Amino acid sequence: MEKTGLSESMQAARNVTKMFLFSGMIEKRQEAGIMASELGAANYDETVDRNGKMGSRTGVKLSDKWSDEMNHTPNNIEEIAAVIDYIEEHLMEERLDLEGIAAAFNYSRYHLHRMFASVTGFPMHTYLMRRRLTEAARMLVFSKEPVLEIALASGYETQRSFSRAFQKYFKHSPSQYRKKGDFFPLQLKYDTSRREKLRGDRILEVAMTEAKTISIVGFCGSTKGGFSVIGRCWRRLHAKKGRISGRADEEFLIGVNDYSYYPCQGMDKVFRYIAGAEVAEEHTVPRGMQEFTLPAGRYAVFSFRGRNEDSLQPVVEYIYGEWFPESTCRFDDGRRYDFARYGERLDEKGESDIQLWVPVI
């Protein structure tokens, strides 16, 4: 197999993705900071910004700085960052595994396994598989390499085993994925420098879904007077959700950020928030509640586990700031909203299934 050709194809594929223009991307990224804290708002009142500000050092001599850098002993996060860089350089090599990487860095397999999982949130073999499948998906869309060649470059011994793994994570066979022509990454390169902000490792699955019209019954309010309205919507819904008959899904509640409600320039921080339950065709609207309709269309759906009351800001920032720029997805300006589905069935840790739905074309 000609590895040089595959490497060049992979780089060319990456370059192509950088050329895509995302309709409304700048505006969406501005909205993401607002949207993030509301999405995890089952018990939302007010969000306090806890991000610290880094101070600047003044009066440091260059010689002192140089000396500090020369005497600096890398901590475990910095060492794992070097491991991740190494993985990227050798990603499409057949013999890339925990044992080989540990030997390259003079680590024990046990140390590297434990430390890598601690820093990134993944076992290394899971990270390697997800990264390789992501680059395989990129090559399927942006190159003409045969599926077998891509399978072998991704570390699989047969096209069949590659197709089985690809189908599991992308919900399409490699041939179907190539034919559709949409690239959506499963796992981007992990950035240890932003590990406290962007926790993409929480996302278990990404899928493209065609959804029918969704009808919701619940409460809404405008954030024009402050974000505390979101908490009020949820408290009212939890107190009266038992009165909603004809629910289409008893497992999830829905929180919608409707940005089309205030289309005026300069008011992008003001939006309508809806907390409700999806209903079937036959249903009733209890007194004091309203009915809302989300049109049929295509969505990028991000699934993960979490606590309903926690802020989704790290996940949302990752999706809008990292995932979308790398994908070929375009926002649907005709559907200026996004919504989260919160599972009502909690595990022993108080976590449930959460899905973030973003309209795309």
TrEMBL record:
<dbReference type="Pfam" id="PF12833">
    <property type="entry name" value="HTH_18"/>
</dbReference>
<dbReference type="InterPro" id="IPR018060">
    <property type="entry name" value="HTH_AraC"/>
</dbReference>
<keyword id="KW-0804">Transcription</keyword>
<dbReference type="Pfam" id="PF06445">
    <property type="entry name" value="GyrI-like"/>
</dbReference>
<dbReference type="InterPro" id="IPR029442">
    <property type="entry name" value="GyrI-like"/>
</dbReference>
<dbReference type="InterPro" id="IPR018062">
    <property type="entry name" value="HTH_AraC-typ_CS"/>
</dbReference>
<dbReference type="InterPro" id="IPR020449">
    <property type="entry name" value="Tscrpt_reg_AraC-type_HTH"/>
</dbReference>
<dbReference type="InterPro" id="IPR009057">
    <property type="entry name" value="Homeodomain-like_sf"/>
</dbReference>
<keyword id="KW-0805">Transcription regulation</keyword>
<keyword id="KW-0238">DNA-binding</keyword>
<dbReference type="InterPro" id="IPR050959">
    <property type="entry name" value="MarA-like"/>
</dbReference>
<dbReference type="InterPro" id="IPR011256">
    <property type="entry name" value="Reg_factor_effector_dom_sf"/>
</dbReference>
<protein>
    <submittedName>
        <fullName>AraC family transcriptional regulator</fullName>
    </submittedName>
</protein>
<feature type="domain" description="HTH araC/xylS-type">
    <location>
        <begin position="81"/>
        <end position="180"/>
    </location>
</feature>
<dbReference type="InterPro" id="IPR010499">
    <property type="entry name" value="AraC_E-bd"/>
</dbReference>
<dbReference type="GO" id="GO:0043565">
    <property type="term" value="F:sequence-specific DNA binding"/>
</dbReference>
<dbReference type="GO" id="GO:0003700">
    <property type="term" value="F:DNA-binding transcription factor activity"/>
</dbReference>
